[in-house]
Design brief:
Growth Hormone, Chain: A, mainly alpha, globular, 0% strand
């Protein structure tokens, strides 16, 4: 474990996360240019991104099957080809539905291949249970950290050369990973740390997919993913518009949300560190409490002078926004790692994709029906509170299990 290899693999997962999820998230920067070029309304254009979230979740069982059947090399190469191909094809789109296939379906598959399933399986082979949370959080933080570089780069390329050229540049940069992935020592990587590899060799094959589907923890983790995504994505897409309608200056509101994005990866790592040191149940409940309090702070923003409540929202909601993903992934890895882990985790990850899609859609519908944001905020709080109860219970059960003395 003294080797630098475990953290080099964390860095690899981080870089692949930027190449897939961060590049996918830059879509919000492309929206005005796409609307202009395709003479389309906002809804059909933004639905492309919702489609990518949906496919990214529902494709997880397929990528899990690829992992279990063909191994880590095949999964990473497949994911990079899908991510690079999606932006390359998008640059050549002549109709809007071409973007649904490229940036929606293909990028969704790429993100599913290079995100939670990859990092949980790969990093789980190299770190013991009591040190797993922080490395997973670092890999998960790629989307937030990467956005600090990819968003300005996308905007610059669009302004100077156009959106098609920008997507071609992203495709070329992502494709650079392919030669590296082909020459990595995957047999050594898949064996994992010597001590952990020996434990896996002497352990049982692990829980099967059918056994997991009959297991309460499986449904607890899946529903936690789904409810958390509903709670977050029902609110986030409308947060800037909410602030503008309260009289906030546009650039000021955008800077506030940029700070929230900067705090997200810090919160991922911080809450995961707390989970490893102080207990996963405590960390989960505290993270959800911060998000719920953040929603309350946002509700208190009534005018352009409510800076205190705005920055309280940024600190609490932004700092906790992405913290549950690594926690859920850690619990899934500890409970289900084995020969069938990829497929089981893939099924669990469906909750995240469906929750993100439903949250963004239902949040918009509630605003249109009510003409305000109260119902949206109530939905967010109820979803987060229910997820807190579910994930807290599962984390507590895992802690009790880890404290049991080994059988004689």
């Amino acid at each position: 474990m003294g080797s630098a290899l475990p953290w080099a693999l964390v860095a690899l997962c981080f870089a692949l996360g930027i190449a897939s999820r961060s590049v996918s998230d830059t879509f919000v920067v492309f929206v005005p240019a796409l609307q202009h070029d395709f003479d389309a309304n906002r809804g059909p254009v933004t639905l492309i991104y919702s489609f990518a979230l949906l496919v990214g979740g529902t494709a997880a069982p397929i990528t899990g099957w690829i992992l279990d059947r063909f191994g880590l090399r095949a999964l990473t190469v497949f994911g990079v080809i899908a991510a690079a191909g999606s932006t390359a094809l998008a640059s050549q789109a002549s109709q809007l539905w071409h973007l649904y296939l490229s940036l929606g379906v293909m990028m969704g598959f790429g993100a599913a291949s290079l995100s939670g399933i990859l990092s949980s399986s790969l990093i789980g082979r190299w770190f013991p249970a009591h040190r797993l949370g922080v490395p997973l959080a670092v890999s998960w933080s790629a989307s937030g950290v990467g956005a600090m570089a990819t968003f300005p780069a996308a905007q610059y390329l669009i302004d100077t050369e156009g959106w098609r050229h920008a997507y071609l540049v992203f495709a070329a940069l992502t494709a650079l990973f392919i030669p590296l992935l082909l020459v990595l020592p995957w047999k050594k990587i898949e064996r994992g740390a010597p001590g952990l590899a020996k434990l896996r060799e002497t352990a049982a094959p692990g829980v099967t997919v059918s056994e997991a589907l009959r297991d309460w923890p499986f449904w607890a983790l899946t529903s936690s993913f789904a409810l958390t995504s509903i709670g977050i994505f029902s609110l986030v897409p409308q947060s800037v518009v909410y602030l503008l309608e309260r009289g906030m200056d546009g650039p000021y509101a955008a800077r506030a949300m940029a700070v929230a994005g900067f705090l997200t990866p810090l919160g991922m790592i911080g809450f995961s560190w707390l989970a490893d040191r102080g207990g996963r149940r405590l960390a989960a409940i505290l993270a959800y409490a911060c998000s719920i309090a953040g929603v309350g702070a946002l509700a208190m923003v009534r005018g352009p002078d409510d800076d205190f409540w705005l920055w309280t929202f940024v600190l609490l909601f932004g700092g906790s926004m992405g913290s549950r993903g690594p926690m859920i992934s850690t619990l899934a890895t500890l409970r289900y790692r084995g020969a069938h882990f990829g497929r089981i985790y893939g099924l669990i990850a469906i909750g995240m994709g469906l929750g993100g899609f439903l949250g963004a859609w239902i949040g918009g519908v509630l605003h249109d029906l009510t003409g305000g944001y109260a119902a949206v905020m109530v939905l967010s709080v109820l979803a987060l509170a229910t997820a807190a109860a579910t994930l807290g219970a599962e984390a507590g059960a895992r802690e009790r299990l880890s404290r049991r003395p080994p059988a004689a």
